[in-house]
Design a protein that fits this description.
Elements (H helix, E strand, L loop, with lengths): L7 H4 L4 H4 L39
Length: about 60
Amino acid sequence: MATNYSANQYEKAYLPTYLQNWSPARPTKEKIAAHEGYTQIIANDRGHLLPSVPRSKA
């Protein structure tokens, strides 16, 4: 027959209230602003740079 042991003896020690590093949550914006711009693909499915991408001189 299996025995079920509680992990509280280990997990409880890492709770923020026991570590004393908790703080009130930061206030959040009511509405998150949308990101501007777009994503530009610079590599193909194999990971190689596309011909239109300028290569660095390094």
